[in-house]
Each structure stands twice: as structure tokens, then as C-alpha cells.
Design a protein that fits this description.
With 102 residues, the chain is mainly β. It has a single domain, classed as Jelly Rolls. Helices cover 9% and strands 41% of the residues. It has one helix at 3-11, and strands at residues 16-22, 28-32, 41-47, 50-53, 62-64, 70-72, 82-87, 95-101. The chain has a four-stranded antiparallel β-sheet, with no helix packed on it. The chain has a four-stranded antiparallel β-sheet with strand order 2-7-4-5, with no helix packed on it. Strand 4 (50-53) and strand 5 form a beta hairpin. The chain is globular and about 35 Å long.
């Protein structure tokens, strides 16, 4: 990636990122996608597995294994999408969910 291209990405406000300290059995908002369609997501969860939704909790899109850095490409995350996460297993709260989209 050229420095000029990277500079354009950073100046456009991307990546957009958010964190959630402790999981719940119902969806909680972690981050809102920027005002344009995004195609990449980097997701990491320290403990316990989680489920991530790119449409405000309507659809279970990705299952995230704990302790593994996940990088997804080729996604179609809608502009302004509310990105949420919840525990994969009821009562097994994840810790420290990090999500970045660009």
C-alpha cells in the first residue's frame, strides 16, 4: 500500500473503531460504521467467543473465537451500520471486544 493511499484512508476518518468491555447475552453496540460502505473488518475478543452483527442485531453475521485476531475482507457493511456483539454462549461473557471497519 502506498503512503499516499494510506494517507487518503486515514484522512477519510477510517478505520472506524470501537470497544466493548464486557459481553452480554443480548446484542450491545460496539461501533457505528462510517458514512460509506466498508469492506474490511478487524475483530478481536480477549476471552470467550462472541457473535457479531453488522445490521443492528438482526442477523448473526460472524462468530468470533476468543484470543484470535480476525481480519475479514470482501464484506459489504452498509454505510452507518450499527455493529453489535453478544456472547456466543449465554452467561459466558466475553471481555474486551475490539472492532475496526474500513
Amino acid at each position: 500500500m502506498s503512503i499516499n493511499y494510506l494517507g487518503k484512508i486515514l484522512s477519510s476518518g477510517l478505520p472506524t473503531q470501537g470497544t466493548d468491555a464486557t459481553g452480554e447475552d443480548t446484542y450491545a453496540t460496539v461501533v457505528t460504521a462510517p458514512g460509506r460502505v466498508t469492506h474490511y473488518a478487524s475483530i478481536y475478543c480477549v476471552t470467550q467467543d462472541a457473535i457479531v452483527s453488522f445490521d443492528g442485531g438482526t442477523t448473526d453475521h460472524l462468530t468470533i473465537a476468543a484470543g484470535v485476531q480476525h481480519l475479514f475482507s470482501g464484506l459489504e457493511i452498509p454505510a452507518g451500520a450499527v455493529i453489535q456483539a453478544k456472547n456466543k454462549t449465554g452467561g459466558a461473557n466475553y471481555a474486551s471486544m475490539f472492532i475496526a471497519v474500513w
